[in-house]
Amino acid sequence: MAENGTKEKIKWTTTIIISSSLKNCEVATALDRSHKIRYSDSVENGSIIFSLSGVAFLLMDAKECFTSAEEIFLAKIEKFTNIHQNSFLVLSAAFHGPEEWKLMFRIQQRFLGSNLRILPVHNTVDVINLMCTIAKMASKPYIDNICYRMVTTEAYIIEQSPVWKTLQKLKLSSDSFNPN
Hints:
Elements: E1 15-19, H1 26-32, E2 36-40, E3 47-50, E4 55-61, H2 62-67, H3 70-83, E5 87-92, H4 98-110, E6 116-121, H5 124-138, H6 140-160, H7 162-177
Parallel strand pairs: 1-2, 4-5, 5-6
Antiparallel strand pairs: 1-3, 3-4
């Protein structure tokens, strides 16, 4: 704990694999400030992979989806989801109007039941914050901490539950009548 009573922020850094096609992108530049970046020609164009967290993001601009044939960008998304188990489509647009929502709906319909999640974003700051938050929460030390907190909370809820207390009283009272 810090002296002022708030928790100190620990800087989280990880190694990120980024598609070479994003080398001059604002997102890659921003990530490069606080993480180790490796560029790769062998990953899907537009992809960012947090390998230690097991999450992958595919950056797509809504305008590019409108200008290209639907089969082309859907094939790209399908290839991406087939490779990455924990995949996110980061769909950026300055404004998510009716056309952008229709696009997201078509993508959702096409990939319903798959491992793809769609994240609508507006700017680079949104992209960085979403990706880093998801990757950080999926990383091993944070997952362990979250699991521990969930188990502790579950135990506390059960311990404080009036239903549980009633069941315990019923069990105790039935034990006193049990001749065994």
